[in-house]
Amino acid sequence: MDLVRILAVDDHEMTLVGYKYILEATEFKDFRVSLDTATNFDQAVQKIEYSAKSSRYDIILLDIQLSAVMDGPAKTGEDIGIFARKTVPESKIVYMSSFSDNYRINSILKSVNPDGYMVKSDIDEKSLQAMVMTIMDSPPYYTQKALSAIRKKMANDFVLDDNDKKILYNLSIGTRTIDMVGNVDLSLAGIENRKRHLKVLFGVEKQNDQALINEARNKGFL
Amino acid sequence: MDLVRILAVDDHEMTLVGYKYILEATEFKDFRVSLDTATNFDQAVQKIEYSAKSSRYDIILLDIQLSAVMDGPAKTGEDIGIFARKTVPESKIVYMSSFSDNYRINSILKSVNPDGYMVKSDIDEKSLQAMVMTIMDSPPYYTQKALSAIRKKMANDFVLDDNDKKILYNLSIGTRTIDMVGNVDLSLAGIENRKRHLKVLFGVEKQNDQALINEARNKGFL
DNA sequence: AATAAAACCATAGTTATTCTATGGTTTTTA
DNA sequence: TAAAAACCATAGAATAACTATGGTTTTATT
What we know:
Two copies of one chain form a homodimer. By secondary structure, chain A is an alpha/beta fold. In chain A, strands 2-1-3-4-5-6 form a six-stranded parallel beta sheet, sandwiched between helices. The first copy, chain A, starts with a strand and ends with a helix. Chain A has ten helices and six strands, in the order E-H-E-H-E-H-E-H-E-H-E-H-H-H-H-H. In chain A, helix 2 (41-53) runs parallel beside helix 3 (77-87) and helix 7 (162-172) packs across helix 8. In chain A, strand 4, helix 4 and strand 5 form a beta-alpha-beta unit. The model of chain A has no long low-confidence stretch (mean pLDDT 92). The first copy, chain A, is elongated. The A-B interface holds A 106, 109-110, 113, 138-140, 142, 144, 147-148, 150-151, 153-157, 159 and B 106, 109-110, 113, 138-140, 142, 144, 147-148, 150-151, 153-157, 159. The first copy, chain A, binds a DNA duplex through helix 9.
């Protein structure tokens, strides 16, 4: 009987207990599961680093949001994923995130290209087991909410560059146009032009910013 | 007990018999299935048109490849999908295709944005049933091979415009550079430049065309 | 092996796009 | 109602991509 080794990273201990309880008790067809855990960024990195020298994890489960570490730049599960891809490319990576917004999912899909993505509200005993089986057998595995985010994105035939995305994101969190000059690397006039252009692109010409944000969300860009 | 009405379009009668035999015999939890069929483009369009005036199909299953009709432009399942989206937007559309290549899947995903995509070699009794349930409950539904095509595409962070795609496609079918001038709407020098640019983009600089094609296929563009 | 064709590469000039800078007008906010 | 921000338009600068052209290298053909 093979042993599938899993590392689960989440800052909520109870979540980890849940994963462990379910997965280690499950009798899979060809294997059983042993689940290791980490509750913060440094611990996760350390365990992954160590695994590279001893025996690799088969699957690494990553939460995106990790409680902030004291000072220093925020280290997220996304960073762990990028690190793991470099360090132990053979290990499969699956995100377990409460983010179901397209912006986040798309970002992760590009930066890490994980083997799976589960939106937490979609997770239950059955889907957890299905995920492990699918990942070991024929990835990828996505839960329903992740899939619809992906579908929306695939259906679009236009692409936004970095500046466009930044402008949209800033709009969505209420940044004033004049304050975007600081973080978008365009002149004020440039930003204004882009906004106008974006409204045309999303078919909300002559409407207000809220309409633009709604459409962008609709089409999977936010 | 609700009735779910399905229209299946395929030029292989036997395939339709298979769908019908399985789906109408299945006892779903909340409904049973009645399956109507069409074996060519015109018949499909006509049935869809008629359904718009009477009662809509809940699901339309479409094969992409339909045996060529005499003269006139080739009418494919893709065209039926586009037509159905316009005519009966409430009907869910699922492709049942033997194409598992990314080029085709991506094209369909953009032009029709179907609620499901099944690669035929992935289809069996269980997946057929799962598809119907998922589509009625919470679309989309994709089979494994379709999913991995989608995953590849999502992981790329660059985009090819129409000319790039045409050049890649022509390369893959062995068109000589000098002959591409006819169908790519660029000068010869322009095409050469694009090819060079594409090789840089795909990280196969200074290598031959085959390397480019392989990488493009690898990354989900062919 | 010689010759022709195609592919490859570089350059100059043209064209098209997008940016900035600027200033005026309209709308929103205090 | 006064000030701030957003909106809009235009001229000029900067950039990127295209064409045309011609030379060099590679590949195919006889």
